[in-house]
Amino acid sequence: MKESIKSIAIVGGGAAGISLFNYFTKKINGNNVNITLYEKKSYVGPGIAYQDDYDFLLLNRHSKQMSVMVEEPDHFWNWYKSQYKVRFEQEEFLPRSVFGEYLKNVFEKSVERAIEKNIAVCVKYSEVSYLRKERNYVLMTRDGETQEFDLVLLCLGNTRLHDHYYLNGQPQFIYNPYPLKQTVSLIPKNANIAILGSSLTAVDICLTLKENGHNGKIDMLSRNGELPSVRGEAKPHKLKYLTYDSLNQILLKRNGQIRLRDITKLIKKEFEETGLEWKSILAPKSHDSNAKKKLEEEIKNVLHQSAWQSVLMSTNEIIEKYWHFLNEEDKDIYLNKYDRIFMSRRNPMPLVNATKILNLMNKGQLSLKSDVVFIDYLKDHTFYVQFNNREYINYNWIINATGPSKHLSGPCKSGLIGSLISNGYATINNYGGVKTDFDSGALINKSGQPDTNLRALGHITCGTYYFTNSMEMIAKHAKQISEDISDLINQSLQEEKDFVSI
Ligand SMILES: Cc1cc2nc3c(=O)[nH]c(=O)nc-3n(C[C@H](O)[C@H](O)[C@H](O)COP(=O)(O)OP(=O)(O)OC[C@H]3O[C@@H](n4cnc5c(N)ncnc54)[C@H](O)[C@@H]3O)c2cc1C
Fold it and tell me: What's the average model confidence in pLDDT over 12-31?
């Protein structure tokens, strides 16, 4: 008889942890299995992205495509329509906090289902800070409590934000902007503000400042000087060239690897099929391209955006396999040259937000600046920002919107992840996060072996799967992992039953 899995720990109760937990309670047959969920915050469900915050902070995907279950993409939408007590004007892109409420509800329903199936559930509001392998896996929390498990699933979310200019800890520097309800309220309305980055988080910050009546100047300081694209109406697109078949053919020809130029050719054909020119969408732009003009054009031609965005969205299907087989040297080139531009195209902002951003630019209150050389915090409590063109500006406040770092370094190497790495249970992936087995999400230990009873989901697997920053991808991986594990559990439960009845 195989070693049976009786006790499962899910570390992290955000969207990934909830999606996994929900699947487990549907798929495990019950009896004698217990699941413990660890969450360091005082609530389970919303995590960082969907926590309680302003209603104008919207989902970046259509509400009908946000779900904890890949097979039911409109699960959230149906819940909102049938249960949520408040109605919103912009229902295509609902507030993220509503999705957080949905996650809480999914969790409650999953607990009810678990009880019906005799699956014991325990929630511990504690941070897991250490993992040790003995006969099983011993988890230790920050308050010193230890418990043993047969299987541990890590759903930790983002481990660390970028801090390119080493400003964390300086007064008037906001390292983690969320929840914006709390952070932005610290800033005087007339302050001169720099936002580091020009991504969706930077857009959230601008919208919040605007809604709070901020009247000081706001500059987004960004390396590429580009705003996210404006979201059109993405329609289902059936990939014709960027397919598994094309990938398999190339892998046969090239000894199990694919090159960036092979992918570029397929992308080109895929775009041409829809009457589009790939370079105008995905090729890196020169720094001096005018962000305001580009935004105006995108707002005007929002219907044109739909076509290419539909193509990009449909790559969710194949993206991780293409990444998996991409030649190592080309992975580096891609990350240095194309990653940022792909992400800014792949994660566009809703039209309503784009219009608000354009209004701020038209009023002269918001500008985009690129090519920062360095930033210093001065004795007069302002930040001195030096640009490449010798211009410099003093800001009263700086808000970080550079997003999560893919790479594990500095503070990430402490705490739970640090213990995993220093004990050799996990190894650093040069392309981001920790190394995981592509098929199972199992952590790869220092001997290069996958440990199928220690698995990860979400951001710390970004080096393996590349695009992990979306609910759809999280739910897809949660389904795979939960099916795999539930099969093992159900099989061993059945074997036990058969053994007893002999
Ligand atoms: C601001 C923002 C907006 C986003 N908007 C969208 C969107 O609109 N649509 C979309 O598809 N995707 C979106 N994403 C991407 C993705 O869906 C979310 O990041 C998603 O919430 C990730 O879920 P997660 O569970 O991996 O991480 P999180 O939601 O961050 O959850 C991780 C949880 O683990 C807990 N935790 C961490 N370490 C420990 C520990 N050691 N012990 C105990 N608990 C621990 C944390 O407290 C947290 O609650 C967004 C991401 C961000 C950051």
Answer: 95
Ligand 1 within 6 A of CB of 128: yes
pLDDT in tens, 420-469: 999 999 999 999 999 999 999 999 999 999 999 999 999 999 999 999 98
pLDDT above 50 for 245: yes
pLDDT of amino acid 112: 97
Q: CA nearest 179: which of 210, 215, 211, 204?
A: 204
With a CB cutoff of 8 Å and minimum separation 6, the contacts of 452 are 437, 440, 442
Q: How far apart are the first and last CA of the chain?
A: 14
Q: Is residue 271 within 8 Å of 308, Cβ to Cβ?
A: yes
Number of domains in the chain: 3
Do 312 and 279 lie in one domain? The reply is yes
On whether both 261 and 299 belong to a single domain, the answer is yes
Cα(103) to centroid(ligand 1), Å: 11
Range of the domain at 387: 173-228+350-400
In a domain, 473, yes or no: yes
Q: Among 346, 469, 473, 476, which is best to mutate for testing ligand 1, by the most ligand atoms less than 8 A from CB?
A: 469
Q: What is the CATH number of the domain that holds 185?
A: 3.50.50.60
Question: What is the mean predicted confidence (pLDDT) over 27-32?
Answer: 86
Any atom of ligand 1 within 6 Å of the Cβ of 40: yes
Identify which of 402, 483, 401, 477 has the alpha carbon closest to the alpha carbon of residue 437. 477
pTM summary value: 0.93
Residues 338 and 410 in one domain: no
Question: What confidence score (pLDDT) does residue 234 get?
Answer: 74
279 belongs to a structural domain: yes
Residues paired with 393 in a beta bridge: 385
Atom number, ligand 1, closest to the C-alpha of residue 204: 1
Among the candidates 377, 400, 423, a domain finishes at 400
Q: Which of 310, 328, 346 is the last residue of a domain?
A: 346
